């Protein structure tokens, strides 16, 4: 293996921020747009130019007709302007730059995407340390406006391989995002002090998600956010315990026979371990981890057994979830006494995985492999050969129409992780695999006109926004919300 030079933002699990411990994996960031901009670094004019150049390529391909891409470009420009130390923007400057971003949010016809865009904007405000008064004026109350959008999100609107089987999964995810965004702005009291208790309403949606996979995975995020913003008491409320109810539902997976569909065939254990590991992380954020870990069965033993039963390529996806959950529970050394052996097994699987074989199972495996190495302090396992194989794989996704139209999915994961390890330039330099074009230019050129065929193009927008938001500077590493949280002791907060 040829040694690669990396500029990594963390040197191991002990250096992770609370935001990363809660949202460590790329799924929530790329798919749901929460937790963007982790691992802040100094402003880089060259990186800023790469972001602007990519949006220019998308615009030339007709993507400005897509309201979400237009919002993303405008927000990235706003973030980069606010982060640039060579520019000292006045309040009127910020207000003028914000106006078209707000208009672009409101132009989203799909209510879920309108809410997601608004939440990303509010999260960016908090991370940039901007005055919330720009969002709350005598004329408008943007946080209240975005919270109200959740009421218009209807069930079973997601158009993917599980269409019609999600129930209220999308609305539940929307509440998770807006609760987190309001918490970042210090406005979480609005959720429980008005005429409605939005936290109770959101938790009540859990039982309206029929599939254990979606209830567990989506519910874990909501439960985690609820703990983070200081309202864990509503999880155990009115004679109910929503954590225990979700765990009970996961235990009925075989009985309910409601396993989700995936783009590629998966083992029977994969849809069981995924929601369980996300729930373990939610349990780590609660004040009763020991009680929940032994509720119904030994949940750590169950996770350990399922990790052994999934396939090696599935383990590259789930390994990071497993390690982070155990770390947050302070049980990693106990459960994995041979930690290095596990990490080396997960990361070493790259040699047997073709990332261009399909867009999902193989296509995002390398992003998980690299992030597992990064967060555990084992970047010595990632060489130039790993990065070259990943960067050059995207032409292979022309093998099927499904892989072709979903190419932005793994490309977003790749752009995100390469930015985190200081290697994003590999996507912006000419390469032989692309006949002398840059991977970014080639991938954008392969898009349909206006991006009409690509259902997951928004994920590339999230990667670009996250890339821009990272350049706010290391001094803005954590917001007061995440900095004041304590795992396992949510009643104790540091102001």
Description:
By secondary structure, the chain is mostly helical. It is 54% helix and 1% strand. The protein contains 26 helices and two strands. The protein has helices at 18-22, 26-32, 45-60, 67-83, 91-106, 111-128, 142-149, 169-184, 190-193, 198-204, 212-228, 242-251, 253-256, 270-285, 289-293, 299-309, 312-328, 332-335, 339-348, 365-375, 384-391, 401-405, 408-420, 439-445, 458-470, 480-483, and strands at residues 236-237, 240-241. α2 (26-32) crosses α25 (458-470), α4 packs antiparallel against α5 (91-106) and α19 (339-348) packs antiparallel against α20 (365-375). The protein is globular, with a radius of gyration of 21 Å.
Summarize the structure.
This protein is mainly alpha-helical and 495 residues long. The chain has helices at 18-22, 26-32, 45-60, 67-83, 91-106, 111-128, 142-149, 169-184, 190-193, 198-204, 212-228, 242-251, 253-256, 270-285, 289-293, 299-309, 312-328, 332-335, 339-348, 365-375, 384-391, 401-405, 408-420, 439-445, 458-470, 480-483; strands at 236-237, 240-241. Strands 1-2 form a two-stranded antiparallel sheet.
